[in-house]
Amino acid sequence: MNVIDILNREQCKPSIPDFRPGDTVKVYSRITEGGKERVQMFEGVVTVRKGGGANESITIRRVAHGVGVEKTFLLHSPRVERIEVTKRGVVRRSRLYYLSEKVGKAARIQEKKVLR
Contact at 8 Å (CB) between 43 and 86? Predict the structure, then answer.
């Protein structure tokens, strides 16, 4: 086993849920303002999931006050406190870059129905 592989495996978080592009997630991240630290929530649709191991990152898109906002998070960063999956989306692509051109109802993703 390579030394780098061992270090990457130690840095990976075990508490990350299973999600894919198209899912709506809430990411709780720690933000430092002045001398205080607080947790801020960012909710949106996962458009991209890149990389692997400790370098894996996700890009989340949401519309705030009529303006599209995209934010990229490192999944295994100590700044990311937790991730919650709120909706499962039905998409057939791994990169949802086409969502940035769509506005309003056209930008919606069909929700996956869960049998109980």
Answer: yes
Q: Which residues pair with 61 in a beta bridge?
A: 45, 70
What are the backbone dihedrals phi and psi of residue 61, each rounded to the nearest 5 degrees, phi first?
-120, 140
Inside any domain, residue 6? no
Spatial contact of 88 and 23, defined as CB atoms under 8 Å apart: yes
Distances (CA, A) of 76 to 25, 83, 109: 16, 11, 27
Looking up residue 96, the CATH number of its domain turns out to be 2.30.30.790
Q: Which domain holds residue 70?
A: 22-100
Q: Residue 47 burial (CB < 10 Å; 0-12/13-18/19+)?
A: buried
Q: What is the pLDDT of residues 17-72, one digit of tens each?
A: 999 999 999 999 999 999 999 999 999 999 999 998 889 999 999 998 888 899 99
Please indicate, yes or no, if residue 72 is contained in any of the structural domains. Answer: yes
